[in-house]
Structure formats: structure tokens, C-alpha cells
Amino acid sequence: MRVGVFICHCGSNIAGTVDVARVAAEARKIPGVAFATNYMYTCSEPGQDEIKAAIKRENLDRIVVAACSPRMHENTFRKTIQKAGLNKYFLEMANIREHIAWIGNDKELNTEKAIDAVSMAIAKVMQNKPLHATSFKINKRVLVIGGGVAGMQAALDCADGGLDVVLVEKSPAVGGIMARLDKTFPTIDCSICILGPKMVDVGQHEKIKLFAYSEIEEIKGYIGNYQIKIRKKATYVDWEKCTGCGLCMEKCPSKNSYDYFNFGVAPTKAINIPFPQAIPKKAKIDPNYCRQFLKGKCGVCAKICPTGAINYEMKDEIVTEEVGAIVVATGYGLLDQNILTEYGGTRYPDVISGIQYERLLNASGPTSGHIERPSDHTEPKTIVFVSCAGSRDKSIGVPYCSGFCCMYIAKQAILTKDHIPDSQSYVFYMDIRSPGKGYDEFTRRAQEEYGAQYIRGRVSKIYPKGKKMIVRGADTLLGTQVEIEADLVVLATAAIAAEGAAEMAEKLHISYDTFGFYVESHPKLRPVETNTSGVFLAGACQGPKDIPSSVGQGSAAAAKVLSLFSRDMLESDPAIAQVNTNACVGCLKCLKTCPFQAIVEDTLRSGKKVAKVIETVCAGCGVCTSTCPCGAIQLQHFTDNQLLSEVSAICQM
Amino acid sequence: MSDVGTKELRIVGFLCNWCSYGGADTAGVGRFKQPTDLRIIRVPCSGRVDPLFVVRALLTGADGVLVSGCHPRDCHYSEGNYYARRRLEMLRRLLQFMGIDEKRFHYTWVSASEGQKWQQVVTDFTKQVHELGPLHDKKEKAD
Amino acid sequence: MSTEKLKEIILKVLPDVDTVIGWQEGFDKIHITPFFMKSPEDAEKAVWNSLCVQNLAAYLPSLKKKTAVIVKGCDSRTIVQYMQEGLIDRSNVVIIGIPCTGVVSVKKVLKAVDYQPIEDVKFSDEKIIIKTSKGEKTLAIADVCPDKCKTCQYPTPIVYDHLAGDPIESTKPAESVYEDIKEFEKKSLEERRDYFKNEFDKCIRCYACRNACPMCVCQDSCIAETRDPHWITQKLSSEEKMMFHMIHAVHLAGRCVECGECERVCPMDIPVAKLKKKINSEMKELFDYVPGVNPEDKPPMYTFNVEEAKIKEHKL
Amino acid sequence: MADTGFLPKEKLKDFLEALSKDAVVYAPALEGDIVLFKEYSQGKDLYLDRPANLGPKSIIYPQCETLLSFDFKKNDPEDPKKVDIELKTESNFANTVVFGCRPCDAKGLVIYDKVFIDTDTADPYYKERRDKTTIISFACEAPFAGCFCTAVGGGPADTTGSDVLMTDVGDGFFFEALTEKGKAVLKSVPMQDGASYKEKAQKIKSEAEKKIRNPFPKDATEKLSQKLFDSDEFWEKVVSKCISCGACTYLCPTCYCFNITDEKTKDKGERIRTWDACMFNHFTLETSGHNPRPSKLKRFRNRVGHKFLYYPEKYNGVIACCGCGRCIRYCPASVDISEIVGYLKDPKQK
User: Fold this and answer.
1) Which of A116, A144, A403, C127 has the fewest Cβ atoms surrounding its Cβ within 10 A?
2) What order do you get walking across the sheet with A535-537 strand by strand?
3) Which of C25, D268, C159 is closest to A31 using CA atoms?
4) Half-sphere exposure of A325 (CA within 13 A, CB side)
């Protein structure tokens, strides 16, 4: 074996605290090492050329690069040695920057540690075997989960790019949160007016197959070849027949159904079309409120429906779709107001959330755009907005900023003045966060042109006094306590992960953070990728986002899918489990522990029962290898012998 | 000499590629200083860590072994760390029984973003192993 | 329970199976040996007494044809564990259970008679009478039984198709099972380490413990002898011997049915089962799991809970 | 008078201490409940009541020995491609006395000698140890469980392979020197004249011989039945219960199979020889994955065949079994090789 070792200075990043020349000299002493050198910037083009030249000149067959983290440049150097004719798995990296040079000041100790790191890499590379990727066909269809603005944007961009799109939305209509907003900041243009055309496009695009009121049941497979089971929840209305005429809704006698679209601002009918612009514009029955379901008799809608679309016997239906990539755009949720006990939870009807206020402002909302107090339907004159209602509050587990509340409060204060010119708005805030084009100017307008009074401080308590709500808080700028007698209080409740976000992540095999938001592959450089190849993120499922960011991510995710699908074949990672059928005793313990069901039972010609790995399904975690008692199933590139060689390189008594 | 003050001991770390190895990278990027005793072996998943690697290391010269993976629920392979948790807990109790102080072995969860936590883990574990001293009567390094 | 009743069952079962595995007399009076019966004439030679120590269930995974096996309560746990792990086809096995009040440790008997060659053995209610050239010696079975019998929880087989005798309830308190482990843990760390070093140093790596172990499914593929993977060298150092026994223990985690065969067969008298019993006590504590008791259970190392009630994150 | 000698029992330790001055003395001692050969040191207890669980074979033929060690040296720092390999063979085997093994154990060594010494290419490692070792055997008064030495050409007082034979004559031990080495040993320590005990010892020895069982049938032929030997059915019948472990072979005084492996760390390593066992699957496993003896039936047949057919064919009819009975005594499944050979010698029985 002829190992070549390249020790990188990384300028002074490594060389500053590691004696790189000594590390190279020590490497030269190790049996099997035919060449060792140190180089200023190994990852630079001349640095890589040097490796390629050395491979030819010194006839090297394995390469160790001691430099930064392999998470940074492993791929770079794999390509380098591949260009020089070596199998790319004949590379090992020793991380002497992040794990050594940057975390210790003692040059002597760092150098010793770097020598060990290089010894381990040499020991391992000598155990490495050439691995070869196999190619497989990609199914060029894409699944988009979530029909909010981010998901719709991703779906439309993919469809316009010529891909077949399966769009799954769990509520009865697409549009997400944006469809419920009245106006958007900072331009004050009508939210549904700009979103509506997109919704129509989604509904009509011949490349988009929309599953509304449907949820993801199961995801199997891997990049390029997923099998998705979709649960079409029972609507009790045959959507093939429903024309969306709305007659049923008009005649339905169950008038007290919870209105999900309007966040319960006012009740709706048990059979309803969520909102006038709904796509698809189809009715559905809420069996929790429908008399037919509760009492077993009614049947008004069935009688009135001109197309006979009502079907009380309808059951959930599971359909399977096959796709090659997934865009996750499941959005976000809002903090349950009940947690905010100091604000009365939801005990006081005139303390409402920001999104409920949006619905009060909206011309097609339950009040037709007239702002009225939920308690007595009178017009409020004094309105208090409380920002950070839950956000930036460690005690309730939301230490982060929800990002868009400062802006929508300013917008709502402006709209309030427009709707009720003699009203006075107060805004309690902690900091005004308005980074964005025209954003800061917008919050200033709310104060300067629309007279909203901004009070810097937290609200400590809200309680009723007669018909009024007393809002007590601190004005930290004046250093005084303030009490405002309000007619209506609007809480900017914190943005949290969508309901069921964790379960969805588990189905997708992607990571999520402490708060339930999905984790991107790299916070800066891979913002819409996940660590699971083939799965991309868009919108607020990754973290609270405003509309332009969500749309931007939707397009970005679509671009990633389109570029992935620009190839016909994909290469599978060969670093997967492999069974030595001579050693395998067929106990199939590996099959029980494989998280991906990538192992099946197989029978050899001799009749011997053994485990078999489905190459394309194996994700390379190695749980099987540490389960197998006889070492018969080995995760390639991380075999027992490879890891043992690293252990013995540093543990020798 | 290591930051802990006495002669360096041999500590082997098995880190999962996706979380803890990344966490150690993050600690490096943040220049969070750590004792130098630890030698890191990268594995794809904490579920890849056969408890016998820990045994092998402890029997052949390591004074301490650290295993770190993704937090439960956050495994890149969704379930690997759950298996690791059971196996390593079993091992911890077995080591103590056979006369190897359980403090020489630690398993924990550090995510790719938790650079500071990683620094803390390495510092505290190194300190803990130093308090116990060497496990073996080692010959002085030949050179 | 009489040998006659057992023979009756064997004769009944024989036509349906390829082999009935039982016991017969061995090379001397104190040694009983496993017996693979194929014919009614064989059945005549079958024996059952408290010298029938071997766990015959261990032969099952290697046999392809339909087999009947005679098991004591403790041995039946092996079959239950095989069922949990899918290592046998239950429909291919006929289980003849024997309620058992305890067997005899041949090692203990030999010690009691100063290792004199044994000329004859007789049984008389819960006693064993040993005749050597130096005379007769009567020993209470309770005094010379293997340690596992002292805390036996399953005197009646857990699974069986035929039961030769009436079921017996255990009279031993369940808490007593791991008392020896708790007692051992009172030793200091150093004492425990020295203890295992001294014991394992006697090991000659003959692998009798491994091969006798019913749960060592690898057998010919055992990593103690391979170079790929190369977990262990062929050297005879303390470390390598310790490593071998750790391999055995770790691979049996949550699977050891405590039949005690490893310890019984060790020609060097090493307490091979101790590590495994310790792990079992932890499996009970952590997962409320006892190997080889319920065919529907899942061995704890091959499953998990998202929230582990008993595993707490360890602080440094 | 150096050919025989007598020591009262209480003087035995003085004798061992005197021997220890010029040699490393191994003697049987209790280790828990088992008997092992341990290096004798002053005041240490002896245990002669029964044969050791593992005989003295590991002293002369260690279970693991370093044949050579190697170092990779890179002496030219400028040219890492230049590697020198330094080989070292070390021998530091001191003069040794094995005290208190049984005649069967000593006979086993003679079976090794034919393989390791009496060939064109003697094994220097083995030969050196053998040459430097003196064997003082202790005659058996009565058989132990499983013993059948007389049936394979030995006996409780057989002298083959021993340098000195020691017999318990009641109030002390009677010593007979059998070789020059033995004479030298007896000469080296003061001892009473043994002549008067010779007759008594002879009587004890012949009494003992009568007590040994002969497992082979009376009218058994010398040769084994080839037909039965070749019958899979026979082997299935007699060894189905075998669990394929190596206890029999490792404890056997005449089994000598070994494996040679290189165990290497970063820059140095050793070539070691370790005991191996024909009962293990790996023993005959070929690189291709093929195994000519894939089942325990085949492997067991080979073990019996080697001891009772192949070895005798090669070495003038000498059976490679000393009848010590260990493989029977310690077999986890109580497989009895003497019974099996008995069948093969008289197939009518079965």
C-alpha cells in the first residue's frame, strides 16, 4: 500500500497552533506511507493539483488529507483523487482544524493530537475498499406537502418547469394562513387578491394533482423513488358532483359549527365551503356538528343538493402516489392563547389573537369587515395590541422571535384607524423588529401618520372591569406602570411549529429542532435542503417567516427539485450495508432493527437462510452492523475492521 | 500538558456524523477551547457504535470513552440513537460491574448546533477521567 | 415423575418426528448424556433423574427435521426465547415438558466425594446417595444443586405439548434471583476487577461456554475466531480473554435464559454466567424484561421506546 | 545410587525447593476447585490427589507463543518508501522441571516429539523447550473417571516420556530415574536410598494396572472397521450430541493442532502460534468459503481418525491417544471417545 498524506496549513488556521511539518515528518515514519507533505491551502486549485500530481509521481493508491472537517471538504477531495484515477473511497480526512487547531492553544499538545488523528486516518484508509455507486432511475414527479403560499409557489414552479406535481393539503382548501390575512405589509394590498390567482392556477394547472382535505399517511422509499400513501379524509360530499353552489350551506340547520377558517371568530354551518374564494370550491360536512351524524336524522343537505353529491356513508380513502422528491411546506401554527393565563387565556371574549383580528378586518370575514367586539358586537374605540404574546419567552418554551408580529401589528394599527377613524391604538412592544424593504418606514407610519401609541414594555396582566378590559403593563422608557382601559385587546401570539410537525418529520426521516421546526442541511449554504436527500423545505415549517421569504423558499425548493430532476439517473451512495453470506447465520436480528426496512430474508441456492440488503433503500446508518453478532453484515466504509483499526491506532498499551 | 493540568490521558470519542461530529465542528468554528486528550472517531450514527468498540478501547489502552449522537427524536436515521441508548446504558452498568468505573464511559446527545454544549461535555468528561487517573499501567511512550 | 411416564410419551411422539432428544446414562453413573432417539428400542434406554443437567433445547436451531425435545422448566425458556427471536419453527418442534424440582451439579457432587471415581448413584427422596470405593455418601440434592435451581422460578416448563407429570409451583421468592449479583456488587471496584481478571485468566478459549450456550446463534461464525471482522486476536493475554467474555456477554444482552450451561461446561470452572446474569438483572430493572418467559415479548436490545422510562440522561 | 531414591512425604517440599534453585519447577496446585500446573515457589501448596484439569502440555507446547516479532523501520527520513523490516526471534526458556504430572501426560509428549522433533525439519521452539525440561511423573494408584490408559498401550505407571517416575508408597515417595536427565535430577538433591521400596512400588503399580477399565470389547480387533468409520449414519448416532467445542482437544495431552497468525499494530507485530482445534469449523475453512469438513460429524470423525488411524499409519502403529480420559470427563455432553472407538473395533455391537 502506498499512502500519500497531505497536511494542510489552512493559512495560519492550522499552522498557527499545529506544527504541520512535524506532523508530516511523523506520518512519513508510519509503515505504508509513501509520501507525506504539508501544503498552504490544500483545498485550493494548486493544492488539489499537487495531490493529483503526487498520486501520479509517487504512484500513490490511498490518500489522507489532514485539514478541516470532512463535513466541509470530503467531497472536494474525493473528486480530486477520482480525477487522478483513484476510487474516491480511498480518501480519508483527519480533522485537524475544527477538532484540534481551533480548540487548543498548546502547540505541542495540538501537534501530538494531530499526529494521532493522522495515524488514525492512515490506519483507516489502509482498510478502505474501493466502492462503486450504482445508478438508478428517478421518478420525475414531486410531492408538495402543504398548500400554503410556500407550497403553492413550489408546486407552480415545478409544474411550470414541466414536472408532475402531487400537492397534498390537509385543510379543505389551499391558501394556508395567507388566505386568511386581510391586507399584507408594507404595501397594504389585499392578501386574497394577490393570492387568489395563484390558488386558481394551482387548482387548474394540468400538471398539478391536488389532494385537499388529505394527509400523508406513510412515506416509503428514497430519493428518486418514494411511495406515498395519502389519506383522503371523508368529506361526506362527492366532490366529483359538488359544484360549490352553496345551497346546502344556506339551508343547513346546524348553525353552531366551529369555523376553522375564521379561527372561531364566529360560528359556521356544519356543511360549509370555508371561504368564497376557496380552491377547490367544494362543500364538506363537519360530523362533529352535523345533526345527521349526531342525532341520526336531518338530511336537509342531501335533499337540497341539486347534484346529489351528499354521501353520509363516505369513508376515508387511502391512495398511493409515486414520486421522486418531496417539498415540505407544512407551515406553522400559533401558540394556544390558553397558555397565556396572565392575559386571561381565552376567558375574555374581547381578548383575541392577531389572526382572529385579521378575520374581523376582512371584508369577506364573518363581520364583513366591520370591526366589532366579540362580546357585544359594538365598535371598539380603544384597541391595545400586545406583541410578543408568548414569543421571546423562555418560560413557555418559545425563546425565539416570531419574526413577523411587529409588522402585522403596525399594519393592523393602520387598518384600525382606517376602519374606525376615531379609534386609538396602543402597542405594547419589547423591541420593534422591522428589517426588510420598507418595513421600518412602515412601523413609523403607524406611529406618526396613524397615531398608534407605542409603549415599550411588557403587559403583566389583563382583566375585565365593567365592559372594558384593563391592560396593565410597564412603560420601561418612562419607568412607570401604565394601565389602559381597552375595548378590545389583540395578542400577537407566538408562531410555533405546525401541529403534528414532529410526526411528519419522523415520517420523512428529517430532523427537527427543539421547537419542532425542521432543520435545514446548512443554515447558510443549504437553506432549503435537508440532511435527507430528496426532501426539501419551503416556508415557515423551517422557522417563522413572512410572505416574501416563504415564496422565495418555495421557488428555491422548486429549483432544487428541477435541478435534481435534470438528470435521468441518480447515483446511489455505495457506503451501505453488505452481507457476507458465508458468515451470515440467518438470525435476522438486523432485519428487526433496520430503521428503513432495507433488509429482507433471502434463501441461497444451498437453502441457507440469510439477510439481504435492498441497496437503494439502505441509508447507511450501520445499526444492522452493530446488531449482527457475527459481523456478517458490514456497513461499507464504516466496517468493524475500519473502526477497529482507528481504535488500535490510538489505543496501544 | 492538557488544560486539565496533569499528564494527558487517552480518551476515545465516537461521534455520529450528522449531529455530534457537527457539534464538535461548531465548537471549533466558535473557537471554544477544550482539553486535548480526546481522539475522535467519526461514525455515521450512534447506532453504529457497537458497545464492543467501547470495551475494546477500554481493554487496549483507553482511559475513557465518550459516545455522542443526535438527540432522541432527532436522529438522522430516525431510530439509530434509540438503539444506541439502550445498548450503551446496558454497557455502562456492565462496565461498573466488571470493575471498570462507569465514570470512564459517558454517552450523551449533542446536536450540530450545540458547540458550547460540546465544549462543556469534553471539558467535564476529561476532568472526570483525570480525577480517576489512568486505567492501565502504561509503558511510557517509546519515543 | 417417573421415567416410565416419560417413556410412554416418547413412544407416543416418536412416529411423528425424526428424533426425540432426551437423556441416557453416560460413561459413568454420575454422568448423563444427551440421547438422540430414533426408535422404540432407543426409547427404552431413556432416563430421567436429577442428573439430567444438559439443556437439550440448545440443539433445536441446528436441526432441520421435525424434532421432539425433552425440557425442564429452565430449558423451556430457551424455546420461548427462540420463539421470540424466530430461531425455530414452533410447528416443527414437539416439546415434552418435565416438571423439575432441581437437578444436581456434578461438579459439586464430585467435590463432595473428593473426586473419587463413582461406582454407583441412587436417589431417595430429594437425596442422592453416592457410592465410591471409600463407601457411601448421602447428599441432599438441595446442597449439591446448581445455583440456578436455588432460585428457580419456573419448575414447570413455560411451553410444552406434553407434560410428563403434574405442574409444580415455584417456592422460591422472585426477589432471590439476583441476590448473588447484589451480593457481588458489594465488593469494591478493584476487587471486582481483580476477580474477573483472575477468573478469566484461567480461560483456555476452548469455547465450550459459547458452544453450549443455546443463545449463541453464530456458532461457526463467531467473531472470536474471525479476522474479518478482527475484533480479537488469538493471543492469550488477559485482555483478549476478557474481550472474548465481553463479546459473549454483550451478544447475550437481553437474551440470556440463565440455563447455566456456560458455567456448567467450563472445564476451567470459570463463573462465565456472572456477567450475563448481571445484564439480565439490568434488563429487568430497565425494561421489566425477563428473557425466555413470554413468546410475544421482544428482546429489549432489538427494540426501543421513544421515551425510556428508566433511562435518564447522565450528567457529568 | 542415583537410579532410585526415597523421600518421606514431609520432605517433598524441600525436594522441590532444591530443584527450584537450578530450574523453573511446575507442579500441580489447586486453583479454586480445579488443578493446574503452576510455577512452584517456596511454601506453595502442592496438590497431587488427582490429575490436573489441564496437563503440563502448555508448558512445553504453549497455547500461544511468539514465533518471531517484526518491526517496520524507516531509517531514512527523506525517503518514506524505504522500509526495513527487522525480524527478531527470542528464546528465553529456562531449564524446567515438570513435577507431578501423570504417566499419560508424559506419554502425550512423546506423541508430540514424533511430530515436532523426529522429522527432517524439527521445530526449534518445541525442541528447545523439550530438551530443557525434565519430567517427573507420578504413578496413579487407581484410575479416575473416564481413564482408559491401558487400552491404548499405556498404563498407570507407564514410563514413556518420563525422566523420573514417582510412586506413593504410603509413608513417602519412591523415585526411579528413567533417563540421564532423570538421573541428574535425582543426583542433584540428597535423597534416601530407594532400593528397599522398589518392590512395594512395583506391587502398587501392578495393582493399579488391574483397576483400569478397558472400554474395548474383549474380542475387539486391532483395526477399526473402515465400513463403520465411513458411515455417516454411525457418526450421526454417536456424535449428534457433540456441541463442537474445543474442550476435548485443548485438554488432550496428544492434540497438537495449531494456527499461525500475524498480529500487527502500527509499526510492529508478532507471528504467533496458537492452539487450534479440529473440532472448530474455522480449522478447515478455506478462503473461498468452502469447508471440506463442514459439519461436526465430519470433524469428529477426523478427530477419531487422526488419533486411531492416520497417526498410527504414519508412526508405526502408535495411537495418538494416551487414555487420560480428560475429553470424556470434561465433555459438556459427556461424549465418550472410548465408547466410540469400542464400536469401531467391534462393529457387531452396534
Assistant:
1) C127
2) A208-211, A164-168, A141-145, A325-328, A535-537
3) D268
4) 31
D192, D127, D203, D210: which is closest to D168 by C-alpha?
A: D203
pLDDT band of residue B1 (cuts 50, 70, 90) is very low
State the pLDDT at residue C1: 55
Domain that includes residue B117, residue range: 11-132
Which chain D residue has its CA at the smallest distance from C37's CA? D237
Which residues in chain C have their CB less than 8 angstroms from residue D274's CB? Answer: 234-236
Q: How far apart are CA C256 and CA D258, in angstroms?
A: 32
Task: Specify the CATH number for the domain of residue A279.
Answer: 3.30.70.20
Name the A residues in 408-467 with CB < 8 Å from any B CB.
none
**Is some CB atom of chain D closer than 8 A to the CB atom of C306?**
no
Q: What is the pLDDT of residues D141-192, one digit of tens each?
A: 999 999 999 999 999 999 999 999 999 999 899 999 999 999 999 988 888 8
The 10s digit of each residue's pLDDT in A307-329 is: 999 999 999 999 999 999 999 99
Interface-testing mutation among B34, B50, B111, with chain A (most A C-beta atoms within 10 A) = B50
Name the grid cell of A456.
415599550
Q: How far apart are CA A469 and CA A384, in angstroms?
A: 9
To the nearest 10 degrees (0 to 180), the angle between helices B80-97 and C274-287 is 130
Beta strand pairing call for B64-69 and B105-109: parallel
The verdict on a CB contact (< 8 Å) between D241 and C236 is no
Domain CATH code at residue B17: 3.40.50.960
Q: Among all residues of chain C, which has the CA nearest to that of D337?
A: C27
- What residues make up the domain containing A382? 333-496
Rounded to 5 degrees, what angle do the CA atoms A316, A322, A325 make? 115
**How many residues are given for chain A?**
653
* Cβ contact A119–D81 (<8 Å): no
CB contacts, 8 Å: D339 with chain C: 27
Nearest to B25 among A69, A113, A595 (CB): A69
pLDDT value at position D2?
A: 58
User: Which residue of chain B is at minimal alpha-carbon distance from C300?
Assistant: B86
Whole-number Å distance between alpha carbons of A24 and A5: 7
Q: What is the domain count for chain B?
A: 1
Tabulate helix, strand, coil % of chain D (nearest 5).
35, 20, 45
Contact B63, B104 (CB under 8 A): yes
Q: Model ipTM?
A: 0.94
CB contact under 8 A, D241 and C35: yes
Same domain for A326 and A339, yes or no, is: no
C133 close to D (CB below 8 A): yes
A108 CB-near residues (< 8 Å, 6+ apart): none
Name the domain count of chain A: 5
User: Which of these, A517, A239, A552, lies nearest to A397 by C-alpha position?
Assistant: A517
Cis peptide before C229 (omega within 30 of 0): yes
Q: D72 contacts in A (CB within 8 Å)? A: 31
| β-pair partners for D6 | D174, D192
Q: Do C302 and A634 touch (CB under 8 A)?
A: no
C291 at B interface, C-beta within 8 A: no
What pLDDT is recorded for position B143? 37
Q: How far is A640 from chain C (nearest CA, A)?
A: 6
Tell me if B139 is assigned to some domain: no
Nearest CB to D80: which of A33, A123, A649?
A: A33
The partner residue sitting opposite A631, judged by closest CB among C86, C217, C226, is C226
Q: Do C208 and D34 touch (CB under 8 A)?
A: no
CB atoms within 10 A of CB D190: 11
Looking at chain C, which residue has its C-alpha nearest residue A609? C87
Give Cα C287 to chain centroid, integer Å: 23
Q: Is position A133 within any domain?
A: no
